[in-house]
Amino acid sequence: MDHSGHGMTMDLPPFTLGRGLEYSPDPFFLAGCLLGLALYGWGVLRLRRRGDSWPVSRTVFFTVGVLSVALVMCTKLNNYGMVMFSVHMVQHMVISMLSPIVLLLGAPVTLALRALPVAGRGRKGPRELLLALLHSRYLRIVTHPAFTIPLFIASLYALYFTPLFDFLMESRTGHAAMMVHFLAVGLVFFWPIMGVDPGPHRPGYVMRMLELFAGMPFHAFFGIALMMATEPMIKAYKNPPASLGIDALSDQNAAGGIAWAFSEIPSVLVLIALVFQWYRSDQRQAKRSDRAADRNGDKELEAYNAYLASLQARGQ
């Protein structure tokens, strides 16, 4: 058995996509994915039995989001990610920048608020606790750009370029905890920008785009730094197992290329989602204005016509 240099002993054959996609579940993430799908499915069924509708697109988005987490954490990609920096970076980018976007488009919080039963008077059930959390000062702080943008950046630089990364990589538990952190940071960062669920911080669409572009370049800079390095920068990956047949510096350069390329993908996806949401919002506003005009008998137009008539009467 070859030693990876950071507390893990793995004698893995050279990486291929087929080997990487073999089923090899992480128990924590497998349980979390199955629980997430089960709870979401329960919510959708509860609405349907009640006669309420739920967009199929949201169910598809949430399912794809969960499956994307399972793809990188419940296959041998997770095994290879312990000893290959490039594979680890694929895990990191998917779980922090792709999975959160798709999960948020599934609107799980909105589904929970609609599906959970209302507790009796004077009592607090899961729905009431969720509402209290949504209106809490804590959530206002952690979803504010003054918190989310620095957190998003620090998750890269303060983790990879400090001893904390090597400490977490000493065990599978530490590696799993790191991935949970990446997922949580991604959800917190993207929720105020393009999430469809209600939240305490929801700026205008232009400001959301600015928030998005404030964080994305740092991912690109991080990737470029890894690509241009002339020696391995991450201790955990300095001595890959000989069975892999890889060079540590070349693998690090590949990891940098992956980080750089992935910084563009979420930007495009989120921009598309934002433009669509903006369009839908304008459509809803126009419909509300039309309904208000119908209810009021178009009083504003009548008042304007009366004003014109009075001007004409004065001129005669």
Structure, explained:
- The protein is mainly alpha-helical and 316 residues long.
- 72% of the residues lie in helices and 0% in strands.
- It contains 15 helices and no strands.
- It has helices at residues 17-20, 27-49, 56-73, 77-81, 85-105, 108-115, 126-134, 137-142, 145-160, 163-168, 172-194, 205-228, 248-262, 264-295, 299-315.
- Helix 5 runs parallel beside helix 11 (172-194).
- The radius of gyration is 25 Å and the shape is globular.
- It starts with 16 loop residues before the first helix and ends with a helix.
- Mean pLDDT is 84; it is low at 1-9.
What's the SSE blueprint?
Blueprint lengths: L16 H4 L6 H23 L6 H18 L3 H5 L3 H21 L2 H8 L10 H9 L2 H6 L2 H16 L2 H6 L3 H23 L10 H24 L19 H15 L1 H32 L3 H17 L1
Helix pairs in contact: 2-3, 2-6, 3-5, 5-11, 5-13, 9-11, 9-12, 11-12, 12-13, 12-14
* SS element count, helices: 15
| Rg value | 25 Å
Order of helices and strands: HHHHHHHHHHHHHHH
Number of strands: 0
Poorly predicted segments: 1-9
Provide the structure class. mainly alpha
The biggest beta sheet is recorded as: none
Offer a few descriptive terms.
single chain; 316 residues; 15 helices; 72% helix; disordered N terminus
State the gist of this model:
The chain is mainly alpha-helical and 316 residues long. Helices cover 72% and strands 0% of the residues.
